[in-house]
Specification:
Layout (H helix, E strand, L loop, with lengths): L4 H4 L1 H16 L7 H8 L3 H18 L5 H26 L4 H8 L3 H5 L5 H20 L3 H15 L9 H4 L2 H15 L6 H21 L4 H4 L9 H21 L3 H11 L2 H18 L8 H37 L1
């Protein structure tokens, strides 16, 4: 067994992350406290996104494309999918002209602290930074990652109790993903001892998160304890998710892996659409906040609708992009 199991089941890991976020965004609360806790820590789904994104970026960088082409390809993977949804959100949510323009330009998070689509605002500068960073640390990835993670960890402290903590507290896990990507690319073996260490580190991360919860928003939001523990959780959790799907494949229960793999192909679109779909449905149908069977059915229905819209939206935008590429080559 080696670290490439994360690469093998990358789509499935992304699917788990987006469904976790979807549970967080769901409109109801549950009568069983552990389930509510799992719902609330769905914040960590975005941390997994960032970790797996940088993991994949390490692979992409090894193809040797120019810095310019590397950045353009990443931007094309984001903006054509983001802008139409941002325009619809501008119209549907009745943004002012200024706020709408900031939203579509991805600047609303930086200028206004608007967290509605903050992930896009955050990931673009990280994508642009990636080729320069990987070029700088080449051949010294382990030491550079440790130093970068430590520095960005402490830099985040300057943004306590601000809107930007949702981003700054997650920067370390993004850089950690590059090292995981290197280990996977080189097919570094995961020994039994290493697997046990990963398990203990993950348990420690969840324990820190759980201990912080009774202290409420002051620690969780104000001081980033919704997200900092995922620096310990993301890498091990990605391995164990990979192991789970590998096991289901071995026992010929491939339906599960195939289903999550399909969801994992449209996680960006799902992320952009799901919360908006909840708002649309909430304006049409009253959704009770407490747990009930009606709420479960409705939220599951929204999940299915969001997935199929995401699937066909992904196909349509990809088709439009391909037309432009063909025209450019002609």
């Amino acid at each position: 067994m080696n670290y490439s199991i994360i690469s093998k089941y990358r789509s499935q890991i992304m699917a788990i992350a987006i469904l976790w976020i979807a549970v967080l965004h769901a409109t109801m609360w549950f009568p069983i406290e552990p389930i509510n806790w799992i719902k609330l820590i769905g914040q960590g789904g975005v941390d997994i996104f960032l970790f797996v994104s940088s993991f994949g970026l390490y692979y992409a960088y090894q193809k040797g494309t120019s810095t310019k082409d590397f950045i353009i390809k990443r931007i094309i993977r984001i903006l054509p999918f983001f802008i139409p949804i941002a325009l619809f959100r501008w119209y549907y949510m009745d943004y002012s002209l200024t706020n709408g323009l900031l939203l579509v330009s991805t600047l609303s998070f930086w200028v206004l602290g608007d967290r509605s689509m903050w992930y896009i605002s955050a990931i673009i500068p990280l994508y642009i930074l990636t080729p320069f960073y990987l070029q700088k640390i080449k051949g010294n990835e382990f030491k550079a990652t440790i130093i970068t993670v430590i520095i960005t960890f402490f830099l985040g402290f300057f943004f306590f109790n601000t809107d930007y903590i949702v981003f700054t507290s997650r920067i370390p896990v993004f850089f950690l993903g590059f090292l995981a990507g290197k280990y996977s690319y080189e097919k570094k073996t995961i020994t039994g001892k290493a697997l046990l260490i990963h398990l203990l580190v993950m348990i420690l991360g969840f324990a820190i998160l759980r201990v912080a919860f009774p202290y409420g928003e002051a620690l969780l939001w104000g001081y980033g304890l919704y997200w900092y523990p995922f620096l310990l959780i993301c890498w091990p959790l990605s391995i164990f998710i990979g192991l789970f799907f590998e096991f289901t494949d071995k026992i010929k229960f491939t339906f599960l892996s195939d289903t999550f793999g399909k969801i994992g192909k449209v996680t960006l679109e799902f992320y952009l659409l799901h919360e908006l779909m909840i708002k649309v449905f909430s304006n049409i149908i009253t959704i009770a906040p407490q747990y009930n069977h009606y709420g479960i059915v409705l939220n599951v229905l929204i999940l299915f609708i969001t997935y199929y819209i995401s699937k066909y939206y992904h196909w349509f935008i990809t088709w439009i992009i391909s037309l432009f590429e063909k025209k450019k080559l002609a």
